[in-house]
Amino acid sequence: MHKIFFIATICVLLAACSNSQLNSSPLKTNVDQRQALEAKQRANALAIADQKIQDHIEEEKRIKQHDLSQLDITDTKIQEGEYDQKYVVGTVKNNSGKELKNIEINIMLYDDSGAQVGETVASVTSFEKDGTWKMKAIIFQKEATKFKIKKIDSF
């Protein structure tokens, strides 16, 4: 009698387990589909956000380029200082209509024959709207007698 009861109990348990697996299978499929849809939506949102960031970066680059074209550099020359030190000096006017940040002016240095002997940089962290900057870049190459402003950057 105990054997029959035991076998019957096992049969009932097996039947119940197979029914629960049949019932949970569509539920599991729905959960998997929902998770896949949510993952796709997150991926789309990330792609949109990434595109907006790239657009913003490009706009910032465009604005900086426009602003830098509004810098007026005048009165440039090589000036001798104390202890036989030389500098490239000049006056820079900010005509951009707004404050500019982290301006760098790259200057190529040449000797009397026109051969490049080095380079130097003049920089300013904050350049006020409509401001004037007395640029001064040190020259380490004693043989430098000429210069050319090569590039103006903003970071």
UniProtKB/TrEMBL annotation:
<dbReference type="InterPro" id="IPR047676">
    <property type="entry name" value="FxLYD_dom"/>
</dbReference>
<keyword id="KW-0732">Signal</keyword>
<feature type="signal peptide">
    <location>
        <begin position="1"/>
        <end position="23"/>
    </location>
</feature>
<protein>
    <recommendedName>
        <fullName>Lipoprotein</fullName>
    </recommendedName>
</protein>
